[in-house]
Design goal:
Shape: globular
Distance between the termini: 14 Å
Helix content: 40-55%
Radius of gyration: 17 Å
Bound molecules: 1,3-dihydroxyacetonephosphate
Strand content: 5-15%
Number of strands: 8
Structural class: alpha/beta
Largest sheet: 8 strands, parallel
Number of helices: 12
Length: 254
């Protein structure tokens, strides 16, 4: 059975005290509750909190930490950036790569993202690779071609053993932070399409073992229905991950 994941992407939110209160609440929940056998919770805080959170969550196998980005080079003169070896070295487990906000505001191309994925993989970080179309592309009914291109240019050069380490997050841009969620049918259709592309490239067994998350205005009221779709293996949660009262019910949606 493939892994279910609920991941919270805090983006550029929460001051230190707030981050501590939230992470304490999640840690307490994980300590006190039996999480489903094949389910994992991931927190992706701003980089400044990564080390502390990686240490605090280290004892809990089902609670892991993700960075929101990494640079493609291992080290060097890249002021302001963080490398995959640095993240790995402080106990970070995953790294989000290719979030639409990184693509849009920091001009990250499919090619740069391909390089970031390679750097993550060679440093024992599992990439959470984001893909997703904007509203205009969906309106033109080009969304499947667009996603296929993102996957082809950033992921499909990987060896089977490498792509097996990746998690994919489908995050339609029109649903991010807008309150406008993809319907469960829209999410299922795209997740099934993504899985079929992986199957074509790498075979059915690998495709069926890969975790594909949905992201975009996922909240307690819609998580259950989204996660009940056969190809939706969990969520990458933005706004609703900033409060334990919202995030915990999403974890409980499986
Ligand atoms: P929202 O849940 O706030 O729509 O954000 C989704 C997202 O971008 C997670 O990476």
């Amino acid at each position: 059975m493939r892994k279910h994941i609920v991941a919270g992407n805090w983006k550029m939110n929460l001051l230190a005290q707030e981050a501590e209160t939230l992470s304490n609440a999640i840690v307490a929940y994980i300590k006190q509750n039996q999480i489903e056998e094949n389910t994992e919770v991931i927190l992706a805080p701003p980089a400044i909190y990564l080390k502390e959170l990686a240490e605090a969550t280290e004892p809990f196998a089902k609670l892991n930490i993700a960075a929101q980005n990494c640079h493609q080079a291992a080290s060097g003169a890249f002021t302001g950036e963080l490398s995959a070896p640095m993240l790995s070295n402080i106990g970070v487990d995953y790294v989000i790569i290719g979030h639409s906000e990184r693509r849009l505001y920091f001009q990250e191309s499919n090619e740069v993202l391909r390089q970031k994925i390679l750097s993550a993989l060679s440093n024992d970080l599992q990439p959470i690779f984001c893909c997703g179309e904007d509203e205009a592309i969906r309106d033109q009914d080009q969304h499947e071609d667009f996603i296929a291109q993102q996957l082809k240019e950033s992921l499909f050069d990987l060896e089977a053993s490498e792509i097996a380490q990746c998690v994919i997050a489908y995050e339609p841009i029109w649903a991010i932070g807008t309150g406008k969620t993809a319907s469960s049918e829209q999410a299922q259709k795209m997740h099934h399409f993504i899985r079929s592309l992986i199957a074509k490239q790498y075979g059915n067994d690998l495709a069926n073992s890969m975790t594909i998350l949905y992201g975009g205005s996922c909240k307690p009221s819609n998580a259950k229905e989204l996660f009940s779709q056969p190809d939706v293996d969990g969520g990458l949660i933005g706004g609703a991950s900033l409060s334990a009262d919202q995030f915990i019910p999403i974890i409980e949606s499986f």
